[in-house]
Amino acid sequence: MHPFTIPPEISARVAARCGTPHPFATLVGPRTALVVVDMQNAFMDPALGHAVCAMAPAIVPVVNRLATATRAAGGGVFWIQTVHDETDDRDWAVMQAMMTPAARARRVAALTRDSAGYALWPGMDVRPEDERVEKHRFSAFIQGSGPLEARLRARGFDTVLITGTVTSVCCESTARDAMMRDFRTVMVSDGNAATSDSEHEAALLGFHAMFGDVLTVTECEAGFAAGAKEMAA
Fold first, then answer.
1. Nearest to 114 by CA among 74, 150, 84, 78
2. CA distance 163 to 59
3. At 172, which helix (H) or strand (E)?
4. Dist. CA 66–CA 50, nearest whole Å
5. Contact between 188 and 162 (Cβ < 8 Å)
6. 0.70 cut: is pTM over it?
7. 32-45 residue pLDDT tens
8. Mean pLDDT, rounded, of the chain
9. Backbone angles phi, psi at 190, to 5 degrees
10. So which residues are the catalytic ones?
11. What is the CATH number assigned to the segment(s) 29-232?
12. In the beta sheet, which residues pair with residue 27?
């Protein structure tokens, strides 16, 4: 697991702006969704993937634990799967142009719908009541990426907990856009995986300094407990 501690100067900066170092420490369960980004074989299995993050399997127990807590609190769990189809060649041509032909071919093979790489990692605790949502961009919220925002709003969610891989790419992109689409947004520090500790830390600190909150899974569980007390009062 990536070591991570919020430096005092970042906490002080957030507290000065928000009135508290953790603006979303209380989580109202029925308004909260866990968004699990790209925990797919394409990003976790060296035999099937094109952009494998070696740390991603280590966060599986944390993500599953938080999924259990979210469901118990009355929230929803959304499993995000990156997909590649012919629309990406047309609508996200810049992405394709930034890869060599060989790299592009590996990505297409790994992320084509219903391929082995597209599938969720077998260790993920996916339940029948959970939702699966495809995305076509790094961010699951940006225009043209997919239906996540509409699915969340249809169920009354205004708070999202972001977990998955890679912290500094798809997870951070999704989290920043979620905040800018007016969701209370939390990145779960021990529920995200990156290629290196330094990239993981930089992404979380940049996000926490301006965009939202950063909590551990234990702090999220405490947040659900606080939210339940608030609803009962």
1. 84
2. 9
3. helix 172-180
4. 27
5. yes
6. yes
7. 999 999 999 999 99
8. 97
9. -95, 5
10. 38, 135, 170
11. 3.40.50.850
12. none
